[in-house]
Structure of Amidinotransferase:
Amino acid sequence: MSAQAPTSVILVRAERFLPNPATAADNAFQTSMADGESPQEVSARALAEMDAVAEALRAQGIGVHVFSDADHTRPDSVFPNNWISTHAGGSVAVFPMYASNRRHERRADVLEMLKSTFRVQTIVDYSGLEADGIFLEGTGAMVLDNVSRVAYMARSHRADSHVLERFCTDFNYEPMAFDAVDSTGVPVYHTNVMACIGTDVALFALDMIPDPIRREQVRERLTVNGRTVIELTETQVREFAGNAVELHRPRTEEQRAVDPRHLVLAMSARARRSLTPEQVELIERSAEIVSVDIPTIELAGGSVRCMIAGVHLDHRRPIDASRLSDAVRAINEDAPRTNDGRFVS
């Protein structure tokens, strides 16, 4: 097992996907549909891309939990990592969202699945902060280093420093906030478009941090445990090279004999094409790159990382029905009864 890379993920199959007009103003990565395209055509293409991502992950042995969503008022529900994160030890966080039409992406059935399938001890819900106009959009706003316990965050109105500190206190992370902008001075709206942290390698657009002192502090913190930092250019960030996620795949002895790597780095085909041969070689020393073409979904300003909510929780053991029956029978036999055989409450 890897502290950084989950073995299971949550995906949402958004049947009414469209680029969200409520997020277009501050998401510089978002683009409009082509002229003449119908919403039905765009949604159909996006569904095929979502299914391709799920299939590619399953082919690697990753556990994929897919939830369907046919609600036309949730065009961005394909990006669940903005409202939920899970953490080793049985903790789940629920986050406050900036766009009002994204707030009802939070789903009770996802939380119920987690509680029934995995060991969940605590759910910490920050969504009430939306009423105060304070937001922290999950692992879009933060990129978490689960090895060194550091939460990296580019400040924006979707990523509030005070909520970051509160999250870090609750979940035992060190907060590392910074300003990040593109070449025109526009703030980076989500940290996970400029940074991906893996077990042995981090992809990070350090040059988008304008403060040289803070830039070097981030670099030093990333490398303190020997991790290699692959620096991304702004051009590569715009191709979604930073919007990748490391996952852990189970391997049989026969598979390990062919390829000992137990990690994969999931990203879009567009992101993969933007990487240099040298960058690919560094990544593939520890992780196999798994890429899927998702041009329609990327119209919404997010890519593969945004689509994936990793599950960093322990599985529950299946209940042995025969043992449960024996236990229930023993309880019933020992339970006090009235003279007519009824249980005493």
